[in-house]
Design goal:
The structure holds two protein chains of two kinds.
Chain A (H helix, E strand, L loop, with lengths): L4 H19 L7 H9 L3 H4 L5 E6 L4 H14 L4 E3 L7 H10 L11 E5 L5 H4 L7 E4 L7 H4 L2 H11 L5 E5 L3 H4 L7 E6 L26 E8 L2 E6 L11 E7 L4 E6 L2 E6 L5 H16 L4 H8 L9 E6 L2 E7 L5 H13 L4 E5 L4 H6 L20 E6 L4 H10 L7 E3 L16 E6 L4 H19 L1
Helix pairs in contact in A: 1-2, 2-5, 4-10, 4-11
Chain B lengths: L1 E5 L11 H9 L4 E5 L14 E4 L4 H11 L3 H9 L4 E4 L9 E3 L5 E3 L7 E4 L5 E9 L2 E9 L1 E4 L6 E7 L9 E6 L2 E4 L5 H4 L1 H10 L10 H17 L3
Parallel strand pairs in B: 1-2, 1-3, 3-4, 4-13, 5-7
Antiparallel strand pairs in B: 5-6, 7-10, 8-9, 8-11, 11-12, 12-13
Chain lengths: 457, 233
């Protein structure tokens, strides 16, 4: 698209907005992009782009994988721009392009790594065609925005540019069905100790063959519809991965990846199956982007999980773990509930599964509780379940329906009071919080520390 | 007692499969028949005490309409003979007249009752709803691409107190036609509304059945009523 007066006016106005925000000490990371798009709706299309654009999309894991890719690029001295500080919708992309451009819009970097919201595809891909696009997985997500998996799949199929090379999760049949005519590479995992033969999750977004709608046989189930499948009706099979995690040493946190018959090992920050998929996805993207195995391996040695997502401390002889559990996302929450169930020790689990903003403005829709596997919290090793938040009665009912015994559950409106009722029987305390409720989790932890100090006096 | 769940492998969005899990815990002796999309439905051939269908994708909605068309008369007969149906989410559109796409094209539905729905796939509607049924409060949540319209007000199911009804101008939500109950409310409705669930059980011939975790679901219902009363629109 050609640049016209309207574009330059929008660019200059956005720059002015950025300057004003800086002067008044406000972050407002999306605001310059918002103004640019208001003033020039096809701003992203007219804005000069870096030579290589790497997009990361999918329901779950896109932020983590984007951060991994960015960390490795930075560690290797690659000059790039990204939208890490802003949002993953069109305004965030516009802001990133503005913030990383010279006066008249020329990009300062040759490479861009953009986390891209799948729902925003119609506002992105007509104006910006990624050279490569990773899709981590496709699941039902927040009902409010994303409705259901087929809806998101339909959007991606319609909008993904034909020239974009896809990097897809071979173990997700929904993901594999995206844009079948596009060039693609797959990544997948051979075997994990947690592999199952049957799905024990409530949600299965791929109940039939993506090819013929016949019955799908799950040869390996990892979680929900993720695994290896085949169809006895038409012969459809999960594709063979180009990047194959052929061995995972869970004890030492190492993953072996084979590509074209050559094997390389990478350190893992965590051996949860989600992190293995995320790490493998990052390796596939970085290799496709031209980095060497040695460069990636060296950077993976330094990889750690962000503290806002996971932190662990010892308080009064108990292991206290703060774990991000995304509200309104039944799959992400189910993953965490399974991790909690599988963790060693006797556990007290504190949950306050509400969306901070919805909760403040309305009575929150709790439908997603019933797509979330609360059943994982019904386990002998979980000695106590403490429920907090305005919808604690509804959450309590959900936990009872999952089979959690009444005598194990305590529920209260103010989740910060949970620190007062933790069972002596528990040696581990999980505090599961959303992105916007991490404050409550920190308060609970601080109260536990204060209690411990008081007891020590 | 027999309860038929239609196409649970597909019609399970928005947590609504738990309507039937809850009923199963409430009626442990009942037979629950899970009819898959490739199977023949049972309610047109034998006495079924409740037929349930949950929300689904638009593609599956059209697939089911196609499947039902050849047996429309049998379905009509089942409805008119008083079989109890509970359809949640966009399932209720299947028995309506038609579904209109954004481009004006129509998906002709079964025409069991006078109702049409208009899709708007890029503007999803989300809201909280409160209304009354048989003098009791009913609460739930709406998350949908469609708004529905009917010229027949006698089909009204829940009289609106707060929120959005069948469409922004309607003063009611849901459809009642004989013993067919269709509502867009999710959350799931049977767990969230003990009085309505009891009414349905009575119709099914299970009057005086104690609900699963009745004290707890009633406490949650009462708390939600208070919260809805404070809700700002």
């Amino acid at each position: 698209m050609k640049r016209n007066l309207r574009f330059y006016f929008a660019l200059m106005f956005a720059r002015g907005t950025k300057l004003v925000l800086k002067l008044i000490g406000r972050k407002g990371t999306s605001m310059p992009g918002s103004w640019a798009i208001i003033l020039c709706p096809d701003f992203i299309g007219r804005m000069p782009k870096p030579k290589k654009i790497i997009g990361i999309t999918g329901t779950n894991g896109k932020t983590t994988v984007s951060n991994m890719i960015e960390d490795v690029l930075e560690d290797n001295g690659v000059s790039f721009m990204c939208n890490r500080a802003g949002t993953n919708v069109n305004t965030g992309i516009a802001s990133a392009l503005i913030n990383n451009s010279k006066f008249f819009g020329k990009p300062k970097h040759d490479v861009a790594v953009f986390e891209l919201d799948e729902r925003s595809s119609p506002k992105l891909y007509p104006y910006m065609q990624p050279d490569m696009l990773l899709c981590t997985n496709i699941f039902r997500d927040s009902y409010k925005r994303n409705a259901h998996a087929e809806f998101i799949l339909g959007i991606l199929n319609k909008e993904i540019p034909k020239t974009t090379k896809l990097i897809l999760n071979a173990d997700d049949p929904l993901c594999c069905s995206i844009a079948p005519d596009n060039e693609r590479v797959y990544y997948g995992i051979d075997h994990l100790s947690t592999d199952k033969n049957e799905c024990d999750n409530i949600v299965n977004d791929m109940p039939v063959c993506p090819n013929c709608s016949g019955p799908l046989v799950h040869d390996v189930v990892r979680y929900h519809h993720i695994g290896r499948v085949h169809c006895e009706n038409c012969g459809y099979r999960s594709p063979e991965p180009d990047y194959r995690a052929s061995y995972v040493d869970e004890e030492n946190g190492i993953m072996r990846v084979e590509k074209d018959g050559v094997a390389n090992e990478y350190k893992l920050a965590s051996t949860s199956n989600i992190n293995i998929y995320n790490s493998l996805a990052a390796v596939a993207v970085l290799r496709e982007a031209g980095l060497s195995d040695e460069q990636i391996q060296k950077s993976f040695e330094k990889m750690e999980i962000t503290e806002s997502r996971y932190s662990e401390s010892m308080i009064g002889g108990k292991r206290v773990i703060l774990h991000l559990t995304k509200a309104k996302n039944p799959i992400a929450s189910s993953r965490v509930y399974e991790i909690v169930r599988n963790a060693p020790g006797k556990k007290s689990v504190i949950i306050f599964p509400y969306d901070y903003f919805d909760d403040r403005h309305s009575v929150e829709n709790t439908a997603w509780f019933y797509d979330t596997d609360y059943e994982f919290l019904n386990d002998e090793s979980i000695v106590q379940l403490i429920i907090g938040g305005n919808r604690h009665h509804d959450t309590y009912v959900r936990a009872l329906l999952a089979g959690v015994p009444k005598e194990k559950i305590i529920h209260m409106q103010d989740e910060c009071e949970a620190s007062e009722v933790i069972s002596d029987e528990a040696d581990t305390v999980f505090v599961l919080h959303d992105v916007y409720t991490i404050r409550s989790a920190n308060i609970i932890r601080d109260k536990l520390i204060a209690k411990e100090k008081e007891a020590a006096k | 007692m027999k309860i038929e769940i239609l196409f649970p492998e597909f019609c399970n969005l928005f947590g609504d499969a738990y309507n039937m899990v809850y009923l199963q815990k409430t009626l442990p002796e009942a037979e629950f028949i899970r009819t898959a999309i490739g199977d023949d439905v049972r309610f047109t051939e034998e006495k079924i005490d409740l037929v349930y269908m949950g929300p689904m994708s638009e593609r599956v909605q059209e697939l089911i309409i196609k499947k039902f068309k050849p047996i429309r008369e049998k379905i009509m007969k089942a409805v008119e003979s008083g079989t109890v149906f509970l359809f949640t989410g966009n399932a209720l559109e299947i028995f309506g007249d038609y579904i209109e796409n954004e481009d004006g094209s129509r998906v002709e539905a079964l025409g069991i009752y006078r109702l049409w729905a208009k899709r708007d796939m890029m503007h999803r509607h989300n809201s909280a709803f409160e209304g009354t049924f048989e003098g009791e409060t009913v609460m739930g949540f709406k998350t949908q691409f469609t708004m529905a319209y009917t010229p027949d007000d006698s089909l009204a199911l829940f009289k609106k107190t707060r929120g959005v009804g069948l469409n922004p101008k309607a003063d009611f939500e849901g459809i009642r036609f004989h013993n067919f109950f269709g509502t867009y409310l999710v959350a799931p409705i049977l767990v969230a509304n003990p009085p309505f669930t009891k009414y349905l059980l009575k119709l099914m011939g299970a009057e005086n059945t104690e609900l699963a975790f009745e004290a707890e679901t009633v406490a949650a219902y009462e708390q939600r009523k208070k919260d809805f009363a404070q809700m700002v629109h």
